[in-house]
Amino acid sequence: MAIRARTPGAGATPARPPRGTRLRTAPQPARLPPGIASVLSVLSSSAVVVDSNDRVLRASAAARAFGLVKGDRLMVSELAALARQVRRDGEIREGEFEVPVPRFGGRTTSFAVRVAPLGGAVGGGGLVLVLAEDQTESRRVEEVRRDFVANTSHELKTPVGALALLAETIEDAADDAEAVRRFAGKMRQEANRLTSLVQDLITLSRIQAAEPVPDPRPVDIEAVVAEAVDRCRMKANARGITLATVGGRGLSVLGDEDLLVTALRNLLENAVAYSPEKTRVIITTRKTAEGNAEVSVADQGIGIPERDLERIFERFYRVDPARSRATGGTGLGLAIVKHVMAAHNGKVTVRSVEGAGSTFSLYVPLRSEHDGTGAA
Ligand code: ADP
């Protein structure tokens, strides 16, 4: 357990209180100043009030659930020491420390702590307020963000590096028209890869920043399917893959048509990219018993190993990175699908058998008669 206490204001304070200085006074009945109890009840942090005898006068349910308080005792000795320091000199202190939380099977949880005298300066009844904020979620979010920035930089560096190298090669081969043509083609490929990546990053940041869809409108699912199929037709034709649509007339949802087309197009592009030539991709639209529009994309492709199914919706996760790059994949397609579905209060599922094929299904709640602006 580590604690780093710091005083926000001026004035140095000792890092630790002197040992053995606890006063052995007879317990005095202490009371909370008026109004404090109602303030504490609305705080989201774990809140504890300690009296002049180091006894807990009041503790929020969270403070007890995290095991910071048991009975009328603060269970973390560093916290109790900090409370005594604050009571002695009246200075507000802050710190961070790790505590094993029994509720989480003893796993340590990181808390940001603020300790302040209650009711003003030194001697103001000796009450001290301890506020502890669970940092687990904010740490996790920060870690995910850092990973994403690192991964994005790495993904951007690859095509940029390739472009620089190809430009150099073209310079060296300036007299060889055939070589120049070949390398210029490769440059175009890398530039396209860069464009797709930047486009996917923009889409991803747009939907992540705006959950749920900011200005939902009635969207006809049949039109979404037609548009997405249209945009994939060329890639499918180039590989002799048939795109066949089945069912689903007159289904309408509330949402953002462009985002729904993007989600379905990503599934179709994957179905084409991860299937052998001359196979079939079937797009089935139907209404489910739960009142969702369901659009499934079933391919006869390479399939996805069971152990990877959970992870393919993570940003930049690929089962086979070399194959993904070879097909121009960015590793962001399914992450975009997942976020688009979340923004529409829907979901995406996958079933797959290695070597036999995959079926991805989108579910979006159907628009009820009372929803939206009236237009279907
Ligand atoms: P990528 O740009 O690499 O295709 P995605 O996020 O769209 O990124 O997909 C993540 C990974 O999931 C892919 O790299 C691939 O390994 C796997 N995958 C996605 N769709 C399919 C599919 N229809 N068949 C087989 N594997 C797939």
Q: Which regions have little confidence, pLDDT < 50, spanning 5+ residues?
A: 1-27
Number of domains: 3
Strand order of the largest sheet: 2-1-7-6-5
Distinct small-molecule ligands in the complex: adenosine-5'-diphosphate
Structural category is alpha+beta
CATH homologous superfamily (4th level) name of the largest domain? Histidine kinase-like ATPase, C-terminal domain
- The CATH class of the largest domain, by name, is Alpha Beta
CATH hierarchy: architecture of the largest domain = 2-Layer Sandwich
Q: How is the main sheet built? A: 5 strands, antiparallel
pLDDT averaged over residues: 86
Give the fraction of residues assigned to helices.
40-55%
How many runs of DSSP E, i.e. beta strands? 14
Distance between the termini: 60 Å
H and E order: HEEHEEHEEEHHEHEEHEEHHHEE
Reported by name, the CATH topology of the largest domain is Heat Shock Protein 90
For this entry, give a set of tags.
single chain; 376 residues; alpha+beta; Beta-Lactamase; Helix Hairpins; Heat Shock Protein 90; five-stranded mixed β-sheet; elongated; disordered N terminus; binds adenosine-5'-diphosphate
Structure description:
The radius of gyration is 30 Å and the shape is elongated. The strands form four sheets. The chain has a five-stranded antiparallel beta sheet with strand order 2-1-7-6-5. It is an alpha+beta fold and 376 residues long. The model is unreliable at 1-27 (pLDDT under 50). Helix 5 packs parallel to helix 10 and helix 7 (257-273) runs antiparallel to helix 10. The protein has three domains: 43-134, Beta-Lactamase (2-Layer Sandwich), CATH 3.30.450.20; 136-207, Helix Hairpins; 210-376, 2-Layer Sandwich (Heat Shock Protein 90). It is built from ten helices and 14 strands. 30% of the residues are buried. Adenosine-5'-diphosphate binds next to helix 7 and helix 10.
